[in-house]
Structures are given as structure tokens and as C-alpha cells.
Write a structure and sequence with these properties.
Pfam families: ABC_tran, TOBE_2. The chain has two domains: 224 residues, Rossmann fold; 108 residues, OB fold (Dihydrolipoamide Acetyltransferase, E2P), CATH 2.40.50. Helix content is 22%, strand content 35%. The protein has eight helices and 20 strands. Helix 3 crosses helix 4. The longest helix is centred in the middle third of the chain and has 18 residues. It is globular and about 80 Å long. The mean pLDDT is 87.
Length: 355
């Protein structure tokens, strides 16, 4: 059953169309991530779901209740939707406890117990209840903001890049904690981010936006392996994209002869492999030859740029390959490359018009 249904949403600001015919179904209890470059319309879409913006056309339904259509719109404060903005937006004149309890019933034992329960759920020590927002770290402020949103027992939780201001280690820990907390509570969640790795790790469902349109949605692994086009492929991570001639289920390209996932495709097109599908060896084990031209050490892994050798009418090109950080060959080394799995045949690019 779908908790949230977005149908043909359109929104224009002056002459700029921010959303164009966006439709998306969010299953009950699902963590959906909306990802896209700046200006793609993802934050406008989130604010529309929250009730801070209203569409020019289209409809929005939550748990069977129509929140927006051509005839009416439910105000934001009546939607029972939790919202955590990027900066947390805590009230600076209120303590942690008062921020979390904002909107709860007036002072009572039950209110204090509920605040303590919420603080515990987001891993905040009870002795922080009397602190002021400026006395908290960035991660602590985000947890207070999350607890405040959970206090209202929302039907839907919206997260607008809530981890972007945190350092790398804390960001990962907060993301895992929030994902676990929301899953345990069974709360349907929508996260907006421009961070590809964050999107892939947090999402049960991933939606990619570009120029105000929803270009592809589905399971994160499916989008990573089978992106609809080259732009989406490169946005979701490093990719080896090259021109190939497809014949009888095989691609003939700079990497040699590679099986493809679209058995009916024929002729010249573009294919994609992820760097982890390209295996590298310093001994001749078949495949094609190349020379390491760049070496970027990253600890346990190393990203290599390998210039492939031209083969007859197939020109060489430089591609990215991942290797063990401790066993990566030096710049100038001759290497042999083979592939695993199938190459994905990309659709030919089509212009996205916001109008």
C-alpha cells in the first residue's frame, strides 16, 4: 500500500518551471530519497509535500486523504507531517527540552516523560535537557530537531539535507541512527539530498530529478546498475562509459568483447560499466592492455586512470579502475583489463525541457 501519491505536480515561479508533471508513489514505511543537482526541483517538491508551497496543478494524497488537488489544499499545520530542515531551525530562546516539547500539551508529568523518551530515542543524554541550542554540537542540534519532529507523531517525515553540515564520520553515524530509528517506528520518510552515496545507502526507493522532472525511480541498486541515461549514470557514481558496437548480445568496445544486458539492442550505442566491474592485473591474463596514467590513493582502495590501447578501428580511451590500495600498480605500469558481469546499454540522450 502506498502512503503518499504524487500525481502530475507542476509548479512555476515567474517564468521558471520548477516542477513539470512529477508523479511518484511512496510505499508505506518506505525510506524514499529524492536526489538531483542544485536547481533540479527536489527541495520545491519537498516543500510542496510539507504544505509550504502549493502546486499550480496536480494532486497529492497521504494515507488516502487528499492534501492538494484542483479544488482545495490542506494547510501545513493540519497535515501531520514532520519536517527537519538542513540547519535544524531550533528555537534559540528555548532549552533542548522545550524545543522537543514544542507543540505538546502544557506542563505535565506525561509531557516530561514524553520528552525524556524522545531524547533517549535519538541518543541524547538526559542532562542535556536544560542546555541551549548554542551549547550543542551540529550533530546534537540535528538530533533535537528530529526528536521535535517525532514528538508530533507524524504520518510522514520529511528530511531536507539534514546531514550536510556534519563532518564525514558524524554524518555516516547520524544517517545510520536516523534510518534505524525511523524504520523501527515504521514512519514513511522522504529525504532530499545531493549526496549520491548518502542517497544510495539510506534509500529503500530512489528518485532522480533533473530540470524539474523525475527522470527515474526505483530500488537504489537497480538505478545504480541500470541508469536510464548517461547523465543519470554519472550522477549516481563513477562510471566507465564508452561507445560500442552491439551484435548478438555482445558489445565490441575499447575493453574488448563484453556481454550486454539488452539482448535486442543492435548497432552503435553507448554502454556503461561501473569501475568495480573492471578487473586489473599486471600479468597477461587476456583482455585488453592499458597503461596507468594516474594513481589516486584512498587508503583501502586506489582509483587508477588507465589509458586503453587502441585496437584496429576501436579507439583507445582513458577509464577509471579501482584497485586494492596496497597492491595498486604505479603510474606507467602496463596492465591487463577484463570485465565481470554485463555492460548496461544506455538510452540515447533526450533533451529535458522544463516547459
Amino acid at each position: 500500500m502506498n502512503a503518499l501519491e504524487l500525481t502530475a505536480l507542476c509548479k512555476t515561479f515567474g517564468t521558471q518551471q520548477a516542477l513539470a508533471d512529477v508523479s511518484l508513489a511512496v510505499p508505506n514505511g518506505c525510506r524514499t530519497v529524492i536526489v538531483g543537482p542544485s536547481g533540479s526541483g527536489k527541495t520545491t517538491l519537498l516543500r510542496m509535500i510539507a504544505g509550504f508551497e502549493f502546486p499550480d496543478s496536480g494532486s497529492l494524497t497521504l494515507n488516502g486523504q487528499v492534501l492538494v488537488d484542483a479544488t482545495h489544499a490542506v494547510p501545513a499545520h493540519q497535515r501531520q507531517i514532520g519536517y527537519v530542515p538542513q540547519d535544524g531551525a531550533l528555537f534559540p530562546h528555548m532549552t533542548v527540552a522545550d524545543n522537543i516539547g514544542f507543540g505538546l500539551a502544557t506542563q505535565s508529568e506525561a509531557r516530561h516523560a514524553r520528552i525524556a523518551e524522545l531524547m533517549d530515542s535519538v541518543a541524547l543524554d538526559a542532562n542535556m535537557a536544560r542546555r541551549w541550542p548554542h551549547e550543542l554540537s551540529g550533530g546534537q542540534q540535528q538530533r533535537v530537531a528530529l526528536a521535535r519532529a517525532l514528538a508530533q507523531q507524524p504520518r510522514l517525515m520529511l528530511l531536507d539535507e539534514p546531514f550536510s553540515a556534519l563532518d564525514t564520520g558524524l554524518r555516516s553515524a547520524m544517517r545510520k541512527m536516523v534510518a534505524r530509528l525511523l524504520s523501527d517506528a515504521g514512519i514513511t520518510t522522504i529525504l532530499v539530498t545531493h549526496d549520491q552515496s548518502e542517497a544510495l545507502s539510506f534509500a529503500d526507493q530512489l528518485a532522480v530529478m533533473r530540470q524539474g522532472r523525475l527522470v527515474q525511480s526505483g530500488h537504489p541498486m537497480a538505478l545504480y546498475q541500470y541508469p536510464i541515461d548517461e547523465q543519470t549514470a554519472l550522477f549516481l557514481g563513477e562510471a566507465v562509459v564508452m561507445t560500442a558496437r552491439i551484435e548478438a548480445g555482445w558489445a565490441h568496445c575499447a575493453l574488448g568483447r563484453v556481454p550486454v544486458d539488452h539482448q535486442t539492442s543492435q548497432g552503435t550505442t553507448r554502454i556503461m560499466l561501473r569501475p568495480e566491474q573492471v578487473l586489473l592485473s599486471t600479468t597477461d591474463g587476456g583482455g585488453c592492455r592499458g597503461v596507468v596514467t594516474e594513481r589516486e590513493f584512498g587508503g583501502n582502495t586506489c582509483t587508477l586512470t588507465v589509458a586503453l590501447q587502441a585496437d584496429g578501428d576501436v579507439p583507445g580511451q582513458a577509464i577509471l579502475v579501482r584497485s586494492s590500495g596496497l597492491q595498486a600498480p604505479d603510474v606507467g605500469s602496463v596492465v591487463h583489463l577484463t570485465t565481470v558481469g554485463t555492460a548496461h546499454v544506455l538510452k540515447k540522450p533526450t533533451a529535458l525541457s522544463p516547459g
